[in-house]
Amino acid sequence: MIVDPSLGLYVVLDGMGGANAGDIASQTARDAIAEFVAARRTAMDPRALLETAIQHACATVWNSAQTNRDRHGMGTTVVACLVVDPASRGEPGSLHAGAKRAIIAHVGDSRCYLLRAGRLQSLTRDHTIVEELVDRGLLSAEEAERHPYKNVLSRNLGAKPETRVDVVDLELKSGDRLLLCSDGLYGYASAEAIQYLLGSGDAPEHVARDLIDLALRGGGGDNVSTIVIETPQVAPTSTQVVRTHGAVAWWQKRQRFLQVAKERGITRNPICRGLSQDEALDLVALSLCQAIFHDLEKSTGVNVWTFAQNLAGPWFERGGEWSAVRNLIDILGMSARTVVDEIRGLDSKLGFLLDIAVSRALVVAELALGGLLAERLRQVDADLIHVHAAIGETIETADLPDDSARFLDSPTVPFLRPDRPVTSSGVSQEVLSAIGKTLTIARARTSPRAELVKQILETLETIATDSSGNFAAAVTAARELYGIRTVDDSGIMPIFDALDAARIITASSVHQISAPDALRAKVLAAISSAHQRLVAAMTGLVLEAVAPYSERLREAQGVTAQLRDQVARAERKRAELEKKFATTIDQSQPWEKRGTTEW
Amino acid sequence: MSTAPPVARAYDGLRPKILQRLMEIRSTLDPTLGRLDEVTAGAQINAVLDHLGNYLATGDLGLHRAFLHTFLAMRAAEAQGPAAVLAMLVAIGDTAAQVAQEDGAGSPAGTELTLMLTRVTASTARAVNDLIAEELERRLAQWRELSTKEQKGLPPS
Q1: Considering its fold, how many domains does chain A have in total?
Q2: How many Å separate Cα A392 from the centre of its chain?
Q3: DSSP code at position A160
Q4: Which of A356, A381, A497 has the CB atom closest to B83's CB atom?
Q5: What is this model's ipTM?
Q6: pLDDT single digits (tens) B65-115
Q7: Element containing residue B155 per DSSP (H, E)
Q8: For the whole model, what pTM was predicted?
Q9: Is A226 in the same domain as A248?
Q10: Structural domain that includes position A275
Q11: Chain B, 34-73: which have a CB under 8 Å from a chain A CB?
């Protein structure tokens, strides 16, 4: 065996041949491989290095057998693992944390197993005659098991001056365990038992010893060789900790959360009126508790957002007051903080991460409520204008010019000329591709019901990737979007809300594409520019649409000014009359005899 | 020697990094900011960061609320809806907390600052919603008054 962490080299060999020739073959091969790798490790590609080292060992064993009659026919199997990182300085039997890749090479029936995420898989295929017959479809797996020549090798090191080496290139993941072993192990221990021991979490050297014991108890001889190699667990990210331990810790405290919410008077909140105490706790407090749990588990905010909307939306629809919503959210927020503080007392690090995550969940709830409030404000504004107009409209309704399809034909807003050059032309294919990926991610992250946002994301892609280098794409797209809204009653504001939502989604989606920062910045700049063009075009359309009304407003202001002049003239006339009257009455007479005028 | 709490001092030390990150993403925070030149946009973002710092240092919610009220009014004058303003303020707070978490990973000061910034963001969101609700209430009162006048056939006051 070779266990050399300084080289990142781990090898199991199983010699064969009369007398002690098998041992000599394996030792010769071992030394040849170790020397070859040590001498050329910086000069060769790792994959070629390991393959050539094994070929070199094969030639060395064959040469040795040719020069000594007693060793004639000797050979050895080999399974070797080279950890690809020259800086390897780990303990024997372990991989250093920086290791990312392992090269596995083998000849014969020594094997390499990988245990990943609790699942055992063989990375090698035995080089036996029976296996090759199975590969060619000449034998079934069952027949191979019972075949008398099932252990006869089709390849080994030393039988010929050179052999074919099978090589596997493996990307390592945190927590992976590799097992190199001879047939002395797997011939006497079941795959299930190997998987169980390998996944036990015990130190690699203990696992290797347990595996040998297992094989010996199963009737194996003394030629059991095993090496267990482990990729250290990389410290989990804070997101992973919150998703796993944080979510569980939060959920385990749900009864406490309900208790605190009850103590703080949730059942007396007007929104819970009509519900029994248990119903109030179940339908309101437990729902938020569950929403936070699911959001922690999935690193999202969608459940809390939905909770807040479902809570406040219908309440507002029924004319409910904001103060009740505020009171309820405050009770739930304070209850959550109490629970998190208690978790923090038990585990400060987890409590800290949970504190941040729960605070963010409460921010999400506020954002959802803010959206509802803003929408109501917009509706009330619209109603106010309507009512005010109904009461005070004094201007005659004039026939307005037909402005349909006018904008593109003869635009009146200077900065929206369709032929105005913009800077997006000449964007590289790489940036275009990254823009496409970003917007694909953004669309995937958009709620299926947010049709308008999806449409805007598609529009943004069209504009951002438009190679014509002018403003036409933005104007055409804006016209399309504007056309949709003008035929329904919801007005233009939902478009601007959707534009905002699209902007936020694309900004975060840029960070999810796999690209260098410089490329991401270019993508962000291109999409932002497209977004600005779309918003500008949309604003232009709105200005265009309101232009006739502006003219009417100016006319109204003119009329108002004339009326104001008339009022001023009337005021002056009245003042003159008052003065005239004052001079004609006899001030010496008592008040009641001056006349009947009542002013 | 500064009398500001350690967390406020840590925030002041991190301000340049936070500002830099916000400047990088400013067009996604708000298209208006994206169109402004660096100096002007930097000044606007700095105004928000100043008030975040003041709130961290003083814990004076009344002062913070007054700033938010003015900020909402100014943005409304620029035709930016309150929901968008809320989203922008939350994005600024989140970015600041993210920078603090990255910069002070593992250190007690970094931990505390991250947590405080997250809480300040939550508090900001809460205050903005209260302000929107107050404005909504005021307009609803106005609407009720006008509706009554409409029914009685009176002119608007």
Answers
A1: 3
A2: 54
A3: S
A4: A497
A5: 0.92
A6: 888 887 887 777 666 788 888 988 998 999 999 899 888 766 777 888 999
A7: none
A8: 0.48
A9: no
A10: 238-392
A11: 34-35
